[in-house]
Design goal:
The structure is a single chain. Helix content is about 45%, strand content about 20%. The chain starts with a helix and ends with a strand. The protein has helices at about 1-25, 45-55, 75-85, 95-105, 145-155, 175-185, 205-215, 225-230, 230-240, 250-255, 265-280, 300-305, 315, and strands at about 30-35, 65-70, 90-95, 110-115, 135-140, 165-170, 190-200, 220, 245, 260-265, 295-300, 320-325. The chain is built from 13 helices and twelve strands.
């Protein structure tokens, strides 16, 4: 009987051990750190990431947890990034170049995934698109290339434009290569560039006043967390000074800006979930090539055009993906 009892115990132990191991593995909750230079974190971006994760079988509270760390200002991003490192998250989701730079300085080991990076190669955040190397990878918004296209569309919209203000955010690392690209392209279009640097929301009023004094024909706001978070103020200032504006994100046009051309940032954010999934399953960021955008939108706000007294050429309207009336 003792032998039989011992055999039963051993059999049960061998049977239940794998089940206990599987249950323990299933109970593992991966932590994703969400680093943002916009506070509160944009709801549409959060929802896009959540949709992407849900499509891959991740459920918050069951097998993943998201630790949000928004910074009130760009200067506080390093502190937020350091806090995520202290939490020992499995992956840091750092949307754009602004957040990536702070995360890069905080850790060389925790994987960092970006979704809307303007120019990861030029800034040295990845070695190349095909072979990122290091602990950083994700999707690029191609801002350096797209700002030139934005300038071309602006010239088509305002054929007599000879001078344009370029609103650049000093806290956005990617704006330097974007500005260089615009300065190289502008003479071919017969346009002179007036660089208008801003660092904080408080500087926007003075920036628009300067553009008005310098008599620019319009302005191009290089996409950044600042231009997105302050989209209502920028739209208000553009109407106040009667300046036509080109933006890199549709949110700016929905808030009252004139027009935008750029990648679909919600789509890029949703696709970033596939990078997080692969990394959580053991793939190294260095082995995940950076992807480019596949969806681009031209959005025009006709209500704003009317308020500015502008007639949008049929050649531009015919190419628009969305016209806001």
């Amino acid at each position: 009987m003792r032998l039989i009892g011992l055999a039963v115990v051993l059999t049960l132990s061998l049977t239940l051990a794998p089940l206990a191991g599987e249950a323990q593995q299933a109970a593992k909750v991966h932590q994703i750190g969400y680093l943002s230079s916009i506070s509160p974190v944009p709801a549409n971006r959060v929802e896009a990431l959540r949709i992407g994760l849900r499509d891959l079988g991740y459920v918050e509270g069951k097998n993943i947890a998201i630790a949000f760390r928004p910074a009130e200002t760009a200067e506080r991003l390093p502190e937020a990034a350091a806090d995520l490192v202290r939490l020992k998250v499995d992956v840091i989701f750092a949307t754009s170049s602004t957040e990536v730079e702070a995360a890069r300085r905080a850790t060389k080991t925790i994987p960092i995934v970006f979704a809307t990076h303007a120019d990861p190669v030029s800034l040295g955040h990845v070695a190349s698109l095909a072979r990122p190397g290091g602990n950083i990878t994700g999707l690029s918004g191609q801002v350096t290339e797209l700002v030139v296209k934005e300038l071309e569309i602006m010239k088509q919209t305002l054929p007599r434009m000879t001078r344009i203000g370029v609103l650049v955010t000093l806290t956005a690392p990617s704006h330097r290569p974007a500005l260089h690209a615009l300065e190289a392209a502008a003479p071919k279009l017969g346009v002179q560039v007036l660089t208008v640097p801003v660092r904080t929301p408080e500087a926007l009023d003075g920036a628009f006043a300067m553009m008005a004094r310098e008599r620019v024909n319009g302005f191009l706001a290089v996409a950044s967390p600042l231009t997105r978070s302050q989209r209502a103020l920028i739209a208000e200032l553009s109407l106040k000074h009667r300046l036509a504006g080109m933006f890199g994100t549709r949110e700016n046009v929905e808030a009252g800006g004139l027009m935008s051309y750029g990648a679909d940032l919600d789509d890029l954010t949703r696709r970033a979930a596939t990078y997080i999934d692969k990394i959580l399953k053991g793939v190294k960021p260095a082995d995940l090539p950076v992807e480019q955008p596949t969806k681009f939108d031209l959005v025009v706000n006709m209500k704003t055009a009317k308020a500015l007294g502008l007639t949008i050429p049929p050649s531009v309207l015919g190419r628009a993906d969305q016209i806001i009336q």
